[in-house]
Amino acid sequence: MRLFFDDQDFDGQLLRALSYTAYEGADIGECFETASRIKEGDRDSWYEAWTKTAERMKADAKESIKGGHTDSARRAYLRASNYYRAAEFYVRDDPQDPRSLQGWQSSHDCFAEAAHLFDPPFEAVEIPYEGTTLPGYFFRVDDSGERRPTVITMSGMDGYLEECYWSIAAAGLERGYNLLAFDGPGQGGVLRQREVPFRPDWEAVVTPVLDFALKRPEVDPEHMALVGRSFGGYLAPRAASLEHRLAACMADPGQFDLFDAAMSHVPQEAKEALLRNDPTVDSLLEKMMERDARRFFIAARMRAFGAKTLREFLLMQHKYTLKGLVEKIECPTLVCDNVADTIAGGQAKELYDALECPKDYVLFTAEEGADGHCEGGAQVLFHRVAYDWLDKTLAS
């Protein structure tokens, strides 16, 4: 469905920002007023418009703090964080563009200001990982110290750990779940601040995260679930294939093999040359980059994966697969699919069919107002489906 822009990518990102209204991450009028200042298809005006709105929200938050209005300040900081995130989306393709780091940092800082205004406060954590740490937040239901089922989650290809609050954590807290969200390699500040790219063996990331979670007295070790949304729909089942301490896994949308998905967009002659790692394929691939939107889309992913050339990026996708691994997943798994997801490659049913563990499949539809990547306009519906399934699965 069209909200405002003729450009489908711009309209999709507007919907993404707007979708967090349900959990204080946006306000409808603010989003549409911001959109009215954006030139169709102009990424610079996108950054400027959303940054201006975010700056206004941050100023409102500071003014509320001065007056002792902490609830108003918390809400304004949350919206500022989301709007800075939205602004950074279209400048994230170039690591040399200072606006990428600035946008992420501003979003990060505003969320941190909001975090300590919740009751109980959201706890910023550093998770030990291969001689360094991964940033995260532990969201706990209350200060009782009671062991509770705990959801482990992370962002996708282009999000931040802070975005996990709106996409999964807020709804979980309402239902009595603790949550641990983190940025791994290729995500959020780990990419933008440290320039650490993705790695295919996501189990090597999730294992230390689970080790960290199990040291917390609030975490029920028998009831830990891993939820992945967007690119997390590959990362979560990949981790679950070799990390068997999980009681449940969820992929929204399910993804099976990134190379197969990428090749569906490549002409046959280019595919054959690519498989030979033939340098002559470069000229064919460059033709795919002629459209500005496609060039941005690919360049942003190349940065996240640490690839210098398009050929290198595509060949990297060979390692991002569940082939030979999917049958190793033991925990009950929910695979989400969508009738109109043009981003994830349409592999959810392939993943579901290949699973040998207890499994469920859900297809979100336009009739529910839920068509599109990660059910952009139907977050409340997704949360009902996801947590009702988790309640049932963990109870059994």
What characteristics describe this protein?
396 residues, alpha/beta, de novo design (two linked rop proteins), Rossmann fold, 3 domains
* CATH class term of the largest domain: Alpha Beta
What's the assembly state of these chains? single chain
- CA distance, first residue to last residue: 38 Å
N-to-C series of helices and strands:
HHHHHEEEHEHHEHEHHHHHEHEH
Question: Strands of the biggest beta sheet: in what spatial order?
Answer: 1-2-4-3-5-6-7-8
Estimate nothing, just give the exact number of structural domains: 3
User: The biggest beta sheet, please?
Assistant: 8 strands, mixed
Q: Helix proportion of residues, in percent?
A: 40-55%
Mean pLDDT: 95
CATH superfamily heading of the largest domain: Alpha/Beta hydrolase fold, catalytic domain
Number of helices: 16
Question: What portion of the residues fall into strands of 2 or more residues?
Answer: 5-15%
What's the overall geometry? globular
Unreliable stretches: none
Rg, Cα atoms, Å: 20 Å
Q: Give the CATH architecture of the largest domain.
A: 3-Layer(aba) Sandwich
CATH topology-level fold name of the largest domain: Rossmann fold
Report the count of strand segments.
8
Could you say which structural class the secondary elements and strand pairing correspond to?
alpha/beta
Describe this structure in words.
By secondary structure, this protein is an alpha/beta fold. It starts with 7 loop residues before the first helix and ends with a helix. It has helices at 8-18, 28-36, 43-66, 70-88, 98-115, 164-174, 188-192, 203-214, 232-240, 258-263, 268-275, 281-288, 292-305, 310-316, 348-354, 379-395, and strands spanning 123-129, 132-139, 148-154, 178-182, 219-229, 248-252, 333-338, 359-364. The longest helix has 24 residues, at 43-66. The chain is built from 16 helices and eight strands. α3 (43-66) packs antiparallel against α4 and α6 crosses α16 (379-395). An eight-stranded mixed sheet has the order 1-2-4-3-5-6-7-8, sandwiched between helices. The mean pLDDT is 95. It has three domains: 1-117, Up-down Bundle (de novo design (two linked rop proteins)), CATH 1.20.1440; 122-257 and 320-396, Rossmann fold (3-Layer(aba) Sandwich), CATH 3.40.50.1820; 259-318, no CATH class.
